[in-house]
Fold these 2 entries.
Entry 1:
Amino acid sequence: MRKLVILGGGYGGMRILQRLLPNKVPKDVEIYLVDKVPYHCFKTEFYALAAGTVPDVEIRLTFPNHSPLKFINDWVTGIDLDNQKVVLKDHEDLSYDDLIIGLGCENNYHNVPGADQYTYGIQSIEATRKTYNALSNLPKGSKVAIIGAGLSGVEIASELYESRPDLNISLFDRGKMVLSSLSVKIGNYVQKWFEERGITVVNESNITKVEEGILYNHGEPLQFDAIVWTAGIRANKVVRDLPVKKDKKGCVYLTPYHNIPGYENVYVVGDCAHLPYAPTAQLAEAQGDQIVKVLQMRWNNEPLPKTLPTIKLKGTLGSLGKKHGFGLVADKSLTGKVPRLLKSGVLWMYKVQNS
């Protein structure tokens, strides 16, 4: 039997399983899925869980249950590419013939002293639960700092405002305007939305150090009751430790067929892959579609095409609480209720397609 091992049941891993199961797997292929939690999590909604506006059960799904698939609930601690095996925390080493690495990302603390020790995060379900517990237990009038005004920072700040309007929220951003990677129209709209609700936006900030209850902006100490870090990501440590070519975030350079150069049978999907796009769930799913096609051609000993189609992303959608949002779709900036409705629709469709 040929063994396909998938590390991580995130958006990329789920899309691959969805495309292969139940009847597009050769009879001589068995699939193993390894994940540290026994269900698929909607990572794009972790901000709402952290803020306390959705319960845990609403942002997860059970993994597929089909006979070619076997699930191992464990932590991956290492990958031996040359000997084709995965090292697990509580199980024996798992050998593979084909490997798909979709282990996701971790916070990138940019070497800021104390950031990893004294801040909360939302890069994993475990971290998000800790963040929720910390934020929900704060007394009235407590001060919360959110470091990073990208999509995650903006969404958690707005959602926390709706959940806990009694808190004093400050959002720290390195740029001159929040969401500078999208458009000026969106940035201005979101910045104004925050200002109208009394959320402090600190533009052109530079966090140099974090201590317990204190962050230093340009060297100036500021006291907070909770500090949430959303200022960038890097690849999972297991991937960062691989002896292959990686970028400064630890993401792996790949061939046009999404496999590691020199390892035709090892693919990387999602946040651990070096790609010419910002990491998103949408990108991981598009990658997953192409990986399945490459796998099937290789299983059938068919020649691969000279090139794969260019991945085309539909755009970006973000929320400002339950009634407002923003988006960049087909290079058109959207603000207000429409992008929020669109995002809700995308989430609903995802749940339906994967249930």
Entry 2:
Amino acid sequence: MNKSIIQVTAGRGPEECSRVVARVVEMMMKDARGKALDITLLESTKGHLKGTLLSAVLLIQTGGISSNKTLEAFIQEWRGTIQWVAQSPFRKYHKRKNWFVGVEVFDVNKQQEWNLKDVKLESCRASGPGGQHVNKVETAVRGTHLPSGMQVLAMDSRSQLENKQLCLKRLEAKFMAWQMEQLLAKQQDQWQEHNELERGRAVKVITDKL
């Protein structure tokens, strides 16, 4: 099963662009579901006005009768700069009618660079409320991802082996979330820096009323 993360951003655009982000997300989700692709809104950052989004992150993957080719075609259609042609719903007499948002896609499988060799595990004594020791042996496990410095402590079980497994699972999840946040932040910064240039290369032009 192929999975991809999609980011839709208004960059430094005005409120109209944030409104376009919300509309584009709605259209993408409807389009994906019509093609039997599984799509989920993972997170979104609301704009200052009702019905607007500064950015949104979606997870899309093959599912049902869809194929990898269907997913690839969907990404090809939406990836890049989207030009939305409409009169501003916020500024009635504003002359500008072209609004731009950026759509970037990340292959989840290519981003997963988790390596157990980068993890340092240490046993430690689990403590309860008020400093009372849950037990006298070191059953808790602290995991450190050395390249990033992230740490996770697992002390759910009295079994050190179970805590080790929990620690590794949670540390990996934390690492993946952190890595994706870094990628999305970097991409948004890049699109903001180059949005003037990208406006001339829109992959899709949508004419509609906001």
